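Folds vary. Our protein:
___
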Amino acid sequence: AAPSVPAAPKAANTPAAPSVPSAPSAPSTPAAPTAPSAANAAPPVPGPPASAPGAPSAPGVPVAPAGNPSAAPSAPGAPSAPSVPSIPTAPSAPGIPAPGVASNSSIPSAPAAPGAPSAPAAPNAAAPSAPQEPATAQTAPTATKQQPKTDKAVKPASEEKRYGQFTRKQWIGGGIVVVLGLAVLLALAVFGTRYFFSTDFGANFLERYDGHSTLPDSAPVGIPVWLSWQHFFNVFFMVLIIRTGIQIRYERKPSAYVTPKRFKKKISLTLWFHLTLDILWIINGIVFIILLFVTGHWMRIVPTSWDVFPNALSAGLQYLTLDWPTENGWVHYNALQLLSYFAVVFIAAPLAIISGFRMSSFWSKNWTKASQLYPAPLARKIHTPVMLFFVIFIIIHVVLVIGTGLLRNLNTMYASQGDVDPSVYADNWTGFFIFLGSLVVIAAAWIAARPSLLAPVARLFGKVTAR
């Protein structure tokens, strides 16, 4: 830049500018071309103190008198700056007048032009943006640090505790939907079966198949005392087995561990009690099967003719009408009862034993071939549905015992009392009180099945430890 190039004229409202001459200085960038950019940068960031009114202009740049518009471009002897060829193109921006036009009063920022006449104005113009970078960078980490706090505050409220795959509300809502759906289906079944038996085809079907299968002539009549005791022990063991099975499934930290003397494998105290009950239940079942075939009572729960199936359908439809038939278990069971008892004794019980044996410590690890043919996951898939089958059977069994003559049925099952005439023992309370006594025994065993009482018994068969 030329050392003697005069600076851009000041605006008319700055009278102190012509009275402050400046000495020539080293070559520098012409102030005229950079004045517009400095003026643009001046409003957001205050310029240096040199830009105040009355302050001397930058050293080395003579100030031209006001009203001489031709002073800046006609500086004599001003050598051109070879290193800055593109500077003069800056005034071509729209709305920015060429330097030296003092008569254009529409430019309010003209007094700020002398404040940044040289190259150092560029750093000053860029300086305000530099502090903003760190400010933004400081703000961003603050927002990032606050975000986890927001997540921690929202996460416990948004995620509820799950029981399995669903929350408590989902289980309750799903249960309500299932109950309502079953109620609707039951209502449709009741009206449908009633309508079916009102037709000629339904009436003829009921007359041909009354719900009782034909039994052999040698089938025994009555319920012996041993069968009543077997029934009590079966209920006793089944209730505790189902309870301990559920405990094993949801137990996270066992209260104690048992290492049996025979198998030398550490198991939880709950599992040990479950296996002990299984063994007692199997022994009771073996005694029941033996007496069943020795006395001929197997004919009462084993199908002996094909008419058992249409009679079972007839009995089921009669139950659906809610006009339940009066049964006399002392003489024989209806076809639906016969098939149900057969399924419990000869299908469900063996499946429970086989699947439980596979998952227990009785199964040896040396049986590699048998383990491949009968893997533990398969046994687990069998064991749980069988347990649910027993639970559903017990619920239905109790409901039907109450709904088809409570006193008579309890006399038959628990007191071994009955007659061919079902009304003979209708008002006898013997079986009812025996049944209440059995419930007290089961409840006492349920309460007594706690670690403090089970551990001393388990020490008789192995080592009991806390871990």
Q: What stands out?
A: Residues 137 and 208 are 91 Å apart (CA to CA). Confidence is low (pLDDT under 50) at residues 1-145.
